[in-house]
Amino acid sequence: MEDSPWWRDAVVYEIYVRSFADASGDGVGDLAGVRSRLPYLAALGVDAIWLTPFYPSPMADGGYDVADYRDVDPLFGSLADFDDLVADAHAHGLRLMVDIVPNHSSSTHPWFQKALAAPKGSEERDRYMFRDGPSSTGDGARQEPNNWLSVFGGPAWTQVPDGQWYLHLFAPQQPDFNWRNPEVREEFLDVLRFWLDRGIDGFRIDVAMGLIKAPGLPDTDPGFGATSPIWSRPEVHDIYRDWRRVLDSYPGVRAAVGEVWTDSAEDLALYVRPDELHQSFNFAWLEAPWSATAFREVIDATLRAVPAPTWVLSNHDVVRHTTRYGEGAPDPSIGLARGYAALLAMLALPGSAYLYQGEELGLPEVKNLPPEARQDPIFIRSKGEVLGRDGCRVPLPWSGTAPPFGFGTGGSWLPQPADWAELTAERQAADPSSTLAFYRRALAARRALRGALPDTMSWLEAPSDALFLARGRLVCAINCGTEPVRLPPHERVLISSGALDGPDLPPDTAAWLYTAG
Ligand code: NOJ
């Protein structure tokens, strides 16, 4: 593979490994399953794949609780399977990125087990965030060291038998590392090298903005603002400067994308300074409602601040966008049409795009999973009050007419809706009017223009509920309103997300136009 900065305009496909394809027949997706579907991904037309964690883990948070950073959980295969997958992905022209989880380990990680066994103030405890509670705990006084809450609900602290507390920004089974400890820093540099040596093309960094906490761990208000003692502390950037030096020391181009939740594009931009990460996720795009004004604001704010932006509509943590875009609409099934249109907008923008497995099949969020099947710690910790993220993690339907729809031979760890028989990859591959066929066409259209478009874009004048986005000779028109809009002048239509109405673009539709320039 050539040494180009491939990540700048790559289309990266997120594989939530446990739900992608199951080769072993135990109902859980695995690395051999991914490998068996590489031809499908190559035919889809993506440039790279990102694998969610497959490391040894008790799976308290779907593998984001890592017990060993240098191995593969038997549930997902072996290191040999991983090596085969890397080689085969490259043979299919696909880059491969892996998830790295540096904010916290599993509570079963040997370091945490040693910390529990060691006394207060020991070197073992210093690798994590152990603290004493307040000295006076009168009636009603808080017992925990501060007011921080877990992202998954409840306090972010759990007490151990000797009275100390340890910090976990997520589940109690995910203790936070102390990133001010040099041993932690060295350990992760070594973990990076371990996977880079195996030939991977990059990393997706979990909770990239959370590693450093403010000295003294003061109380906080909710939110990602600049004064937060938890998120985006200035010193976190030193970590990524160290990581960048490691990435750059390898042959070829190895890239890193940070999972960064922030309040502003300016803050996001700090992570992608030339000596830090290559990319950071731009969740403002995913959070924007179906509205031309909202889309335009996000696009403008992003492009003003971020030199090599990313765009993403769905991932394994959020409600699938076909469902999201239908919420509150008179007919929720409109969400799928809007999803097509948003895809064309996303693929027309400068930068790179991240797809989430199953969006190319038009999968909706599964809302009616039985409570006993749900596994998300958010659901479990909230005692079912918050549904959590299982609905976007239901294993993919590949073929056949009954569950598990070719996912594997041993059922699927979350039940699939019976009507997914209509949505299997096999069925859609044979149908030119399917979502899969549309995704293939859209990705092929983007590839055909690769290298021919400037890195910048401008707005053409458009009716208030529409956007006309111009990049060189490409104009993407998107209609978020309720009335048809007249398309801007063009030579021909390259692709549209739905039928056009003569010279007009119907509501909830987008089109790529080739213009005289
Ligand atoms: C973000 C991951 O995407 C999510 O799935 C996980 O629960 C949290 N980080 C904690 O690792």
UniProtKB/TrEMBL annotation:
<dbReference type="InterPro" id="IPR045857">
    <property type="entry name" value="O16G_dom_2"/>
</dbReference>
<dbReference type="Pfam" id="PF00128">
    <property type="entry name" value="Alpha-amylase"/>
</dbReference>
<protein>
    <submittedName>
        <fullName>Alpha-glucosidase</fullName>
    </submittedName>
</protein>
<dbReference type="GO" id="GO:0009313">
    <property type="term" value="P:oligosaccharide catabolic process"/>
</dbReference>
<keyword id="KW-0325">Glycoprotein</keyword>
<dbReference type="InterPro" id="IPR006047">
    <property type="entry name" value="GH13_cat_dom"/>
</dbReference>
<comment type="similarity">
    <text>Belongs to the glycosyl hydrolase 13 family.</text>
</comment>
<feature type="domain" description="Glycosyl hydrolase family 13 catalytic">
    <location>
        <begin position="14"/>
        <end position="393"/>
    </location>
</feature>
<dbReference type="InterPro" id="IPR017853">
    <property type="entry name" value="GH"/>
</dbReference>
<dbReference type="GO" id="GO:0004556">
    <property type="term" value="F:alpha-amylase activity"/>
</dbReference>
